[in-house]
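It would be a great kindness if you could assist me with a short task in structural biology. A protein sequence and the structure tokens that stand for its backbone fold form the material at issue. I should value your view on which stretches of the chain appear to form regular backbone elements. The record follows directly beneath this note.
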Amino acid sequence: MSDPARPDADLLATVSDHADRWFAGGSAPGFAWGLFRDGKLIGTGMLGHAGADGAPPTEHTAFRIASITKSFTAATALALRDRGQLDLDAPVTDLLDWLVGLDVPDGAAPPTVRMLLSMSGGLTKDDPWADRLEALGDDEFRAMINSGVRFGAWPGTRYAYSNLGYALVGQAIEAAAGRPFPAVARELIIDPLGLDRTGFDVRMGDPIATGYARTGRQWEPQPHTAPGAFSPIGGLFSTVVDLAAWAGWLTAAWRPDRFDDDAPLSAATRREMQQIVRAYPPEPYEEHLWGKGYGYGLVIEESGRGRTVSHSGGYPGFGSHLRWDPASGLGIVGFGNARYASPARFCAEALAAVVPDAPEVVPWPETLAAADRVIAAIGAGDLGALAVERDALSPNLVQDGTLAERQAELVSAIDFLGGLLGGEPVGAASDDPSKRSWDLPAGRGVLRCSVSMNPRSPAQLQQLVIKPVLRADL
């Protein structure tokens, strides 16, 4: 956890320590990482070698980013949706007239593009089978699909990570745009953002890292595969610089001082990508999380520290991870040039070590004013005083319990606690601008109070909760 004022040099030193420990584990012959804020690199680290010449990688060395590609695939699909060219809620069989091989379970309709984008299309997890099929041609792909595809669940009912689902999204993109998927992704997303070192083909130019697999004690180079029907699942090459910029552009959608609605995707659509669409359970070591799930091409984690957005990539010869904290704009990208060399734990632990606490929620002025009125009324021993500013009360408040009834409950609660101690409120907090809670010290515990405002402007007090809490229950 980081102090917001902590110098960048300290942040870099912390991340570098985590990186050194990861690389020392021998997971890959080369490792490149970058710490960024709002898409701009704060600093990088380059360890080991990127290829046969023994030279280390640089921030401009292109690595296969594998499944991080899915965020670009999702963005391309959403761009077509926003242009009215792709219906995310249409069954994929309606969009692909050649598709006849889906063995959809009885009582279910074929999955929609939205289901496939959010990993809830009913297909089963297919790593690492799909990772070896990138260069499959369209004719071969269609023949394979139409020979029969089985489902593990009714479409739209549960999460299962499906590369095949994203390959079908790529086919839907091609059908909607009338051009090959890599060309559509480049035209709509990659080129407008100026991601010059991001592409689907090794002909994009050097330097490009060599991928390796361990055979005994030796690192054996792995061939690069060519673009094909499975490119939407993981075919992109990119760099530390470009992925930092990509994450910064997505992050800007949460920062009103930075977002640009003239960009390839509106801020609203970019926020749509970064929200849980299909939830799934966290891992046992992620017990700190409140929730975790898949958005559109991205993994979202929710905790007391706020939202974290990420995606991992694993491919023959490569492992990658991209992760950022929208609230602070801080993020980390890591690449290893070995088969399924996952730097995910490095990125997660290093980012957690440098991200500041979640910013405090700023309540509406009406919320603070209502809390002050309630505190004053309790101090005076008379909740009836709230009636003085009748316009500040939502009509439902007195319908749900008259002020006289609430006054009787207040007297009973204070008596149960052995009286109030007369101190200042403690623990004041808001998890939403419309809400405020606090405790009033009492003889045997605290009087726990909270207010909630309705959504009108100006907002009115719609809920008042006052309950005694014994010290033993705090």
